[in-house]
Write a structure and sequence with these properties.
By secondary structure, the protein is an all-alpha fold. It has one domain (about 5-210). The chain has helices spanning about 5-35, 55-70, 75-95, 100-105, 110-140, 150-180, 185-190, 195-210. It is globular and about 55 Å long. The chain contains 8 helices and no strands.
């Protein structure tokens, strides 16, 4: 049987995965209900300026705390967890640039707000990068890091981890490219391109952590972290 320590880690991983998947769904549905009309923000961060602002901050803060508590196998896992912790808090506490309706509120402290937005972008990029690192480099390992003894289920899990990592990285790169050339891509802007890419990334992130939490594809006798 799994000991209490292993069970707690599995629960923590599943909790992180569930929060990642629920974040865009709760924000979108909550805002639609609050406004009484179909509304999708241009990005997940833009929900900071909607009725679901507190939900966004609460979920990101919860993810940050879970990441802070995460230990994993060794020092690499702990460092990655701390980076994810700081990044998630940075996203929650330092908002992105406001939509046009809020722009006048920030003109007086333009320099300060520019710094806040820069911190937000750096936090967002580092958060998604560390999530991809978790999936591709950390989750694919075992306690003794012996790939020859991987079970069939472990091999399947590793495939999912890598796919999730590639999805996260691909979405991040696409967002960066879009952000540079968005003036020529109004069609994508109107269809909330960044929001959907971020949602896909968070679904990949959540799936990876749910699999790591042995929600699916677990071995019959799993005795390692």
């Amino acid at each position: 049987m799994l000991n209490n320590k292993v069970i707690s880690y599995l629960t923590l991983r599943k909790a992180i995965g569930i929060l990642g998947i629920l974040l865009p769904l709760v924000l979108a549905i909550g805002t639609i209900i609050s406004k009484g009309e179909l509304f999708i923000a241009s990005s997940i961060s833009k929900y900071y300026y909607t009725e679901t602002r507190n939900i966004l901050i609460a979920i990101l803060s919860a993810v940050a705390l879970f990441m802070f508590a995460y230990r994993g196998y060794d020092k690499k896992d702990r460092i990655a967890g701390k980076i994810a912790f700081v990044s998630a808090l940075g996203i929650a506490l330092f908002p992105t640039s406001p939509p046009q309706t809020f722009a006048n509120m920030c003109q007086a402290d333009n320099n300060i707000f520019t710094i806040i937005v820069i911190i937000h972008y750096i936090s967002s990029i580092s958060f998604f990068l560390v999530l991809a690192y978790f999936s591709h480099c950390l989750f694919t390992r075992t306690l003794n890091n012996d790939s020859k003894n991987h079970t069939l289920q472990k091999k399947k899990r590793n495939i999912i981890y890598k796919i999730c990592a590639y999805i996260i990285l691909g979405s991040l790169i696409s967002i960066i490219i879009y952000s540079v050339f968005k003036c020529n891509l109004q069609f994508l802007h109107k269809n909330h391109f960044i929001f959907w890419l971020e949602t896909i990334s968070l679904f990949a992130f959540g799936t990876s952590w749910l699999v790591k939490g042995k929600f699916i594809l677990k071995d019959k006798q799993e005795a390692t972290l």
